[in-house]
Amino acid sequence: MERFVLDARRLLCPLPVIRTQNRIRTLEAGDILEVVCTDPGASHDIPAWCRIHGHEIVETVVEEEIRIVIRVGG
């Protein structure tokens, strides 16, 4: 298991989801991806995409920036 960070700050919908999708395609099951973004819609869109595609949301922190930690599913 490895941990990665995706910087999706200053990107507007749908780019944070698209960048997350593209990055997860390159990872192994069990890897952790932390997505850092500023688009408020991403706090709903990325978890919804993860549910559909079998990935687990480990943590979501919404402050000045949004941090979504994802465990890649198999």
Features:
single chain; 74 residues; alpha+beta; Translation Initiation Factor IF3; four-stranded mixed β-sheet; 30% helix; 34% strand; globular
Instruction: Identify the strand order in the major beta sheet.
Output: 1-2-4-3
CATH topological fold name: Translation Initiation Factor IF3
Q: Which structural class matches the secondary elements?
A: alpha+beta
**At the fourth CATH level, what is the homologous superfamily?**
TusA-like domain
Give the overall silhouette. Answer: globular
Mean pLDDT: 97
The helix count comes to 2
Question: How many independent structural domains?
Answer: 1
Strand percentage lies at: 25-35%
Question: N-to-C terminal Cα separation, in Å?
Answer: 12 Å
Order of helix and strand elements from N to C terminus? EHEHEE
Q: Describe the sheet with the most strands.
A: 4 strands, mixed
